[in-house]
Amino acid sequence: MATTDELEKKIGYEALVKLSAEWGGTRIYVPSTPARGNGHLTRAQAEKIRELRERRHWSVARIALAMATSERTVNKILGRHAPAPTKPRDKPHAA
Question: What is the DSSP track for 2-29?
Fold first, then answer.
C-alpha cells in the first residue's frame, strides 16, 4: 500500500489533494494495467450504467453489452444481488 509521500511523488501535490478530497478515507483499487472489460469501471462508467437503466430503461444484458462488461458487474453497480439459490423441496416420506 502506498503512503501519502509516495503518492505525492508519483502524481504530484495537486492531484493528491484532489484524490484525497474525492476518495479520502476510502480504499480504492487501482489496476496496474487498465483494460476494457476487466470488471473495474470508472465512476463515469458507473454513472452511465445508472443513466441507461433509469432514464432509458435498458435491460441489464443490453447495458452490459454496450459497456463491454458483465451482467454481474452491472447488477453490482445497480445495487442488485443475484437471488439466493432455492433448495429443492424434500420429497414426502411414504408412511
Answer: --HHHHHHHH-HHHHHHHHHHHTT----
Cell 472489460 -> residue: 37
Which helix (H) or strand (E) segment holds residue 47: the answer is: helix 43-54
- Residue 35 confidence (pLDDT): 54
CA angle 6, 11, 14 (to 5 degrees): 110
Residue with cell 463491454: 68
**CA–CA dist 55, 26 (Å, integer):** 29
Per-residue pLDDT of the chain (95 residues; tens, 9 = 90+): 678 899 899 999 999 999 888 888 877 766 565 555 455 788 899 999 999 999 999 999 999 888 888 888 889 999 875 444 455 555 555 55
In 3D space, the residue among 51, 56, 38, 57 whose CA is nearest the CA of residue 77 turns out to be 51
Query: CA nearest 50: which of 81, 76, 83?
Result: 76
